[in-house]
Amino acid sequence: MAIGRLSMKVGKAGKAGPHAAYIAREGKYAARLDRNEKLEASESGNMPAWARQHPQEFWKAADLNERKNGTTYREMEIALPRELSAQQRADLVRDFVRQEIGERHAYQWAIHSPRAADGGEQPHVHLMFSERQRDRIERDPDQYFKRYNSKNPALGGARKGYGPSAGMTLSAAERKAELRQLRDRWEKTCNAHLERAGLAERIDMRSHAQRNTGLIPERKYLPSEWRDPALRAKVIDFRQARAELSQSREVLRREVPSTGAEIISLELERERRLAERNGPDVSHGAGFVAGREGEHSHMAKNTKNTSSANKELAERASAKEAGRIATALARQNERRENQESMRLQGKGPDAEKAAQDLRVQKERADQAQAAQQQRRQMEQERRDEQDRLVNQLQRENGVKPSRQPTAVEQMKARAAQQGHIKEHAQAPGQNVVRMDQMKARAVERGHLKDSTQEGGQGGAGARNSLEQMREQAEARAADKEQRSDEQDMER
Ranges of Basic and acidic residues compositional bias (predicted)? Predict the structure, then answer.
């Protein structure tokens, strides 16, 4: 079955030379010809004089001289009909190149025919061409790919631009429209060659949705996925089932009109026999025949009218029946294709149930994580409030709030406790001031009242409360540090 496919690709700087070697199966790509793959034909044209005998030099020069963010080549990758011979496929490509490229752009193409998944041929053509336009001015490789000089073309490079809108900036919708027009032109050219070869097959470049076939497009597979034997076997089975479905639809399309013709033929036969039974009896004599001539003529007219009406009725019934059969088969085949597609993509009933279970488990895990995070946040807020109260009591009693150790200091302390680093002792003679020394110095300077001279039960109660809260804070810090050490050990 002939397949309609045409894709347009764009090559960046540094890719033209290797890709030209790839399609021509030269250099390291020559080994592919030993793996059940054929290079049916390869040609080049419109090359400048310095690359006419060696097209590879043109693409290498494009890689060297085009801008880093420029386009070195464009490529059409087109599927060719299996039904045509190798020579007929080459003639088809030459005709299309003559139509689309003409003498405007340097080009190179090659026809590959690897083995397909079903064991048959998979012929396709790679058509590379440069966007640089020929203008009959000879340029060396350095000048050929320079910027175009509109005032003096001989001093600049070849002008860039391809297609009807060459040199124009197109939107995404306009580029898609141009690609559709290109595919339509390929469809007409390919079908003309198929008809010329006496073949009934035709290609259709429209999508399944545009053709209203009811078929589901097959998703694209990566080369790594395609090398998986299990997945490849599933895809081959799916393609075979889809091919059988298309074949059965074609048989149905051919059989339904013949069924209608058979119904009409049976109606005509019934009318003929009825006319014979109601015809004139020759034994009654010529007078009776002459007397009944007008009646017979009237009966013939009525029979003719009845026959025409029966034909129309039979045609309407046949078309209605055929439409009902075709609709039922299409729905059945669509259900089968959907089930097969879901099975191949892992979306069957079992997979759907498993996916639902996974979603429920994920939601539960997210809820548990959110609750745990909320508990941690509430615990941290409670601790911050307690620390705030401790600092407030210290300020009320004239004690400078103790400074919380920084994250770096906490890490160093934990590392010293675990023996990862050695704790450095204070050097002799270093000015080390303790809290009581700082407090005494503040009392001497009058910045702080001496709490030891204040008597009374209130001061003792405040000191006791302060000591209790300080002990609680130290206990919490020790507990927190222990949990942090345990987590570090677990990690």
Answer: 312-323, 349-366, 376-388, 436-452, 468-491
